[in-house]
Design brief:
Layout lengths: L2 H32 L6 H21 L9 H16 L2 E3 L2 E3 L1 H18 L3 H24 L3 E10 L4 H12 L2 E12 L2 E11 L3 H10 L3 E5 L1
Antiparallel strand pairs: 1-2, 3-5, 3-6, 4-5
């Protein structure tokens, strides 16, 4: 076996890694695309492919099994965090994009596994991710009935007794209630609560707050 044959073998293996990486990224990204999320199959596929390429270069330029083989690839872990943070945004009291950021993160990990030639590990993790994505909503709907919410209530009244009464009434519907913040702004009292509540009780809380004339606005 001469040196040229070794190079040809490596290039063919690199091609296999690239194809496998594209397939893995496409499969992970399609679920986000169907749900019309900010990062779809194009974004996830490119992230997975880029992680694979950086890992291949890191391994080759680092001379195989030496300590330098992971030097370039190690920066993928920190760099992918910036992309993940870009899809997380706060809307009112809610935080959205955490699942998409997690898929971006795991797609980079799968791409790196492929780049280092760990095909079985990458395939197992890919299947595990798809199983979590598929089973997660079912589990949340029928098993994990309790949800944590941040409830922000706006009141006209500064009366402490009314505030206390409303909070005590909300506690009847919740598993746990914790006062996070109380402030007075623009002639309104704003109370922010951390609550843990059964999903079936959310409508009852909404109806109660709507019926209270002192409450001008509320949001989760």
């Amino acid at each position: 076996m001469n040196f040229d044959n070794i190079n040809i073998a490596w290039e063919w293996e690199d091609l296999i890694k690239i194809v496998f990486s594209l397939i893995a990224g496409f499969v992970l990204g399609m679920e986000r695309e169907w749900k019309d999320k900010s990062a779809g199959f194009k974004t996830i596929a490119i992230i997975c492919l880029g992680s694979t390429l950086f890992t291949i270069l890191s391994y080759k330029l680092g001379a195989g099994n030496s300590e330098d083989a992971t030097r370039i690839a190690s920066y993928v872990v920190s760099g992918i965090g910036f992309l993940g943070a870009g899809v997380i945004f706060k809307e009112g009291a809610n935080v959205n994009g955490l699942t998409t950021a997690s898929i971006i993160w795991i797609s980079a990990a799968i791409g790196m596994s492929i780049g280092f030639g760990q095909y079985i590990m990458a395939a197992v993790v890919l299947l595990a991710c798809l199983a979590i994505i598929a089973i997660g909503p079912i589990f949340s709907r029928y098993v994990a009935t309790n949800v944590a919410k941040v409830l922000e209530i706006h009141m006209d009244s500064k009366d402490l007794l009314i505030r206390k009464e409303i909070i005590m009434d909300i506690k009847k519907y919740c598993r746990n209630v914790k006062i996070k913040q109380v402030k007075y702004s623009n002639h309104q009292l704003i109370v922010t609560l951390d609550i843990v509540i059964d999903k079936s009780s959310l409508n009852a809380v909404d109806q109660y707050l709507i019926e209270r004339k002192e409450v001008t606005n509320f949001e989760y």
